[in-house]
Amino acid sequence: MCVADTVIFDTSAFLTLTGEEPGADTVQDFITDALAGEIVLHASFVSLTEIEYITRQKEGEQAAERRLADIKALPIRWHHSDEALCSDAAKLKAAHKVSFADAFVAATAQRLNATLVHKDPEFAALNGVIKLHPLPPKATKT
Questions:
Q1: Model-level pTM?
Q2: Which of 13, 42, 66, 68 is a plausible cystine mate for 8, CB 3.0–4.6 Å?
Q3: Does 21 reside within a domain?
Q4: Of the candidates 104, 105, 99, 109, which has an alpha carbon nearest to the alpha carbon of residue 87?
Q5: Whole-angstrom Cα distance, residue 111 to residue 106?
Q6: Which sign, positive or negative, has the C-alpha torsion 43, 108, 129, 115?
């Protein structure tokens, strides 16, 4: 399934996987490719923060701790902030309509020349700036 050698997951990719949303199979395929050594998976530190607070709000502290442990066990290289990344994120945020957290994820993708796997429609603003691999949207309730 390899679409790129270097892939970065947005928080929405992790939540797609753990929530068994449409696109979870695609996220799992990327993980399988990483385990086989076919690609390198990356993620930004902000995803750890977002996953923890979202899960704490919706499911409680124990669920958040379990989810973080499960995600940290995946074959992912985590990227933390430095001064240059802060500047790159600020430039993206100033030039494009993206959230603070998404600016860091996008700046990390840009730094790594990675394909960003996401379900966040906000990233459409960065089409042509970074490589994007959108996941299918959540099913709408009727």
A1: 0.91
A2: 42
A3: yes
A4: 104
A5: 9
A6: negative
67 closest CA partner among 114, 18, 100, 21: 18
The angle formed by the CA atoms of residues 68, 73 and 77, to the nearest 5 degrees, is: 95
**Domains held by the chain: number:** 1
pLDDT tens sequence for the chain (142 residues): 445 699 999 999 999 999 999 999 999 999 999 999 999 999 999 999 999 999 999 999 999 999 999 999 999 999 999 999 999 999 999 999 999 999 999 999 999 999 999 999 999 999 999 999 999 987 665 5
Residues paired with 134 in a beta bridge: 118
Tokens 């973080």 — which residue?
Answer: 68
CATH number at 90 reads 3.40.50.1010
